[in-house]
Design a protein that fits this description.
Length: 342
């Protein structure tokens, strides 16, 4: 059996753990694995490297992906999709494991339904916004990075009696913001799922100062919106999957907080720092387990599925269900966080 894998979309810690788990499992079952380079671009152009258990054994602690990634979308053009189908034949593949977020997995799902290509999906994203899985690998490492950054920012906020607004990634889902807000004891948490009432936040910051707390930490999602406002975008750039590049809302909010409260305020955008670095132990284990289970599905010939975490176990779910809709933050998480936002 010859299995290909690729990593598409934004990189994240834990991708190499999946590759290692997959390669080992396929090898143990007597098969071989290749890695297509730079996401779907590698599938279109037929660019690949051979992967074996020895060579991939050392990659577990490495951040990013040894295969490279891109946001290439073969479905932008029907002739390009035909090239992917052709590469599949030329490379004599029995299965393709796509490791990615909703965009990458959406392509894998369509290749399965439109062209009966034997694809399998593995969910990846720091955003944790994929349906059908409890958590995506990359999310935990990202939270630890944000927590470490905010713990450092807190010392400056405290020394200078400032409010610091920290803008984090996550697109239109507030998982990173809410979880890191709880982990960092933030004074305000602004997620895309709830319109932000800045007057309420400013009143709280003033009350806390009056009560003796000399600084403030405000966590804001890049996709958060102020009441009656539009999304804040960087430059209006749209990627191949139609997503606009977000960013800048933290700067806007910091200025407004300073104006409304009179408290000196700064903002920090953590940006791509959040996708970098060596995966946490949790993400190494989750990535490895997902890779093993993707390998097992491949060798069993169980295609059109995505491996997913449900509770403590890795299960297989229909790929089409997983890419059906983005998973935003359920309200109960913000309800819990709100106990500390009064
Ligand atoms: O989906 C992962 C993510 O990091 C988002 O949180 C963020 O909005 C986006 O990717 C940034 O993409 P890029 O690396 O293309 O700027």
């Amino acid at each position: 059996m010859r299995v290909a894998c690729l990593t598409g979309g934004g990189d994240c810690p834990g991708l190499n753990a999946v590759i290692r788990g997959l390669v080992r499992t396929v090898h143990n079952a007597g098969g071989e694995t290749i890695g297509l380079l730079e996401g779907w671009r590698g599938a279109i152009e037929g660019n690949f490297i051979e992967l074996d258990p020895m060579q991939t054994d050392e990659i577990l602690p490495k951040g990013g992906t040894i295969l490279g990634s891109s946001r290439t979308n073969p479905y932008k053009d029907a002739t390009v999709v035909a090239k992917v189908v052709q590469s599949f034949k030329d490379l004599k593949l029995d299965c393709l494991v796509a490791i990615g977020g909703d965009d990458t997995l959406g392509v894998a799902s369509k290749l399965y339904s439109d062209h009966q290509l034997p694809t399998i999906g593995c969910p990846k994203t720091i955003d944790n916004d994929l349906s059908s899985t409890d958590f995506t690998f990359g999310f935990d490492t990202c939270l630890n990075t944000v927590q470490d950054a905010v713990d450092k920012l807190r010392t400056t906020a405290e020394s200078h009696r400032r409010v610091i607004v920290v803008e984090v990634m996550g697109r239109h889902a507030g998982w990173i913001t809410c979880f890191s807000g709880i982990a960092c004891a933030a004074d305000a948490i602004m997620v895309p799922e709830e319109e932000v009432d800045l007057d309420v936040v400013c009143e709280r910051l003033k009350q806390r100062r009056a009560a003796g707390k000399t600084y403030g930490i405000v966590m804001v999602s890049e996709g958060a919106k102020l009441k009656g406002d539009e999304l804040t975008t960087k430059d209006g750039d749209i990627d191949e999957f139609g997503h606009v590049s977000l960013g800048g809302v933290g700067t806007r909010i910091a200025k407004l907080i300073e104006d409304k409260t009179g408290i000196e305020t700064r903002d920090v955008t953590l940006g791509h720092l959040q996708r970098g670095g060596s995966p946490s132990a949790y993400d190494r284990v989750l990535g490895t387990r997902l890779g093993i289970h993707a390998g097992q599905l491949a060798t069993k010939g169980d295609f059109g599925k995505m491996v997913a975490l449900r509770g403590l176990h890795i299960v297989a779910v229909p790929l089409a269900d997983a890419v059906h809709e983005m998973r935003t933050l359920p309200p109960s998480f913000m309800d819990e966080a709100r106990e500390f936002l009064k």
